[in-house]
Design goal:
This protein is mostly helical and about 500 residues long. It folds into two domains: about 1-30 and about 100-370, no CATH class; about 390-500, no CATH class. Helix content is about 60%, strand content about 5%. It is built from 23 helices and five strands. α6 (about 145-165) runs antiparallel to α8 and α15 (about 305-320) packs antiparallel against α16. The longest helix has 30 residues, at about 1-30. The relative contact order is 0.12. Mean pLDDT is about 90; it is low at about 505.
């Protein structure tokens, strides 16, 4: 009997180690990929300026048009410094390791949260993997990944207090709020989550006292809600410790009100828009929502008010904009783990659950090796608008100086590599540039007289365009005699104004 028990323990141990190792390998494959977010270039440049001058830029600064005096919403200044320091220390090509390390840290936090709430390593692995896969399509080295870390950290704090009632745990909410407010515009999610716990735990306390006097139930509800309400107030107040002060609250509330942003910027498009519903991230979100319902429905009698509110709030948020899907995965993890932890699990269920985690992780690795991660990236290549080596070489020539009309996505890297020698017309900070200016940039590639006027007024010497804009430009026959192709690759086209070019050059004009 002892020999059989020892053999079973050995099998269980090997299965646990195998499941953890293979799952970590999957997460590494999903997150250790080259950087693809064009925002990184701008943030690293701004971080460099902050480190060198000790001052956060107050205006847009980089472009050559009137918008250079627009107010710069410096809500991501802290990650900008971090990105610059990482870039300076390791070099851009090695930053995939920093990105992957943050991914593994996120997975570790999720696993700890799910395992603590469910009491099961297998359930922890499965739910943590689900959350990471849901978030993977936006998992790039951008300030948002710090917000996701802080979101899961806050779930740790609030669920720990719900179990232990230890006030000292709640103290962690203050530094989380401060760091979050100085890192990403989603910082208001923190107080909202705390408010959900306040309302949910109050309702749960009142619900748990049927037949008692209304005043007694009200006191019980207030007693349960007060600690979380204090967290809400604390997080709101400490979030004001940022360079924008109260202005950051206004910025966060109004950021998603721009119709131009919601129309042109992919991460702000409607989740149920046809162009997103046909993509893999939407299918993964639907699958995760289905898996969550498959857990919630049979466990509905154990569903607390807090869990129901948390799930409903983040499901509704996820259905608003594509970028909010990432929060749903982590909220669903906390709810599902809490429900499963309340079930009378038997020891024999852990082994098949571990086997399932191992099998699914192996399948995920096979799919990632064949098709890349959720947005098609591999450890050796990732789809992006980053400049190719030949384009970088062309732009690095010291004699290239002046104003550049550029595609929206290319402005950040142009600033990083060439500013102030070359100045862009726009970069990725649409919130600081404003809707009218963004639309003007779009119309430049549609209306030839407007483009000619812009070029003349601002002495534009070069154009750096994605093929999307270049194809529009070729329809303007009157411009072919004024511009020539300096360089083109599979990503972008560099044009030079002919009257600014060397006379003896015989390169072809725009065709």
């Amino acid at each position: 009997m002892n020999r059989a028990a020892s053999r079973d323990a050995s099998i269980d141990g090997a299965l646990r180690v195998s499941a953890v190792v293979v799952m970590i390998a999957l997460i590494a494959l999903l997150t250790f990929v080259p950087l693809a977010a064009n925002d990184f270039w701008l943030q690293a440049k701004i971080g460099q300026m902050i480190v060198e001058s000790g001052v956060i830029p107050r205006t847009v600064l980089f472009p050559y048009t009137w918008v250079q005096a627009n107010t710069f919403n410096a809500h991501e200044w802290l990650p900008s410094i971090i990105f610059h320091l990482l870039d300076r220390t390791f070099g851009y090509e090695r930053l995939l390791f920093a990105q992957g390390a943050i991914g593994l840290m996120q997975f570790g936090l999720c696993l700890l949260l799910a395992r603590r709430l469910s009491g099961s390593l297998a359930i922890g692995l499965l739910l943590a993997a689900m959350a990471m896969v849901v978030a993977n399509y936006r998992y790039d080295l951008r300030p948002e990944i710090f917000a996701l870390l802080l979101f899961v950290a806050l779930l740790h704090v609030l669920t720990s207090y719900r179990k232990s009632a230890d006030w000292r745990v709640l103290a962690w909410a203050a530094p989380i709020a401060v760091i979050w407010a100085n890192s990403h515009g989603s910082f208001l999610v923190g107080p909202v989550v705390a408010a959900i716990f306040a309302v949910g735990e109050a309702a749960e306390a009142a619900r748990g006292m049927p037949g008692t006097a209304l005043r007694t139930r009200f006191r019980a509800a207030a007693h349960a809600a007060i600690p979380y309400a204090i967290v809400v107030a604390t997080m709101v107040l400490t979030s004001l410790l940022n360079p924008l002060g109260l202005g950051l609250l206004h910025f966060a509330v109004t950021l998603s009100s721009s119709e131009v942003t919601k129309t042109f910027i992919g991460e702000w498009t409607a989740t149920l828009s046809p162009r997103f519903m046909g993509r893999l991230p939407f299918a993964i979100f639907v699958a995760a929502a289905g898996a969550t319902l498959a857990i919630v429905v049979p466990c509905r009698r154990r569903l607390t008010v807090t869990d129901a509110l948390l799930l409903a709030a983040f499901a509704a948020l996820a259905l608003q904009r594509t970028r909010f899907i990432v929060f749903f995965g982590f909220a669903a993890l906390a709810v599902c783990a809490h429900l499963l932890g309340a079930m009378p699990w038997r020891r024999e269920l852990e082994r098949p659950a571990l086997a399932a985690a191992l099998g699914l992780a192996a399948l995920g690795i096979a799919l990632a090796l064949r098709f890349g991660n959720v947005w098609g990236a591999y450890p050796f290549a990732a789809p992006s608008t980053n400049f190719t080596a030949p384009m970088i070489e062309k732009l690095s020539r010291p004699q290239m100086r002046g104003n550049v009309l550029n595609s929206y996505e290319l402005g950040a890297e142009l600033i990083y590599r060439t500013y102030p020698r070359l100045r862009p017309s726009i970069d990725s900070r649409i919130d600081s540039y404003g809707d009218r200016y963004f639309l003007l940039q779009e119309h430049l590639f549609i209306e030839e007289p407007l483009l000619k006027e812009f070029v003349a007024d601002f002495d534009v010497r070069y154009m750096l365009l994605l093929w999307r804009e270049f194809d529009r430009l070729t329809k303007m026959k009157g411009l072919r005699q004024d511009w020539r192709v300096e360089f083109a690759d599979h990503k972008a086209v560099l044009l030079e104004r002919i009257d600014a070019a060397t006379k003896e050059s015989k390169r072809p004009a725009v065709d």
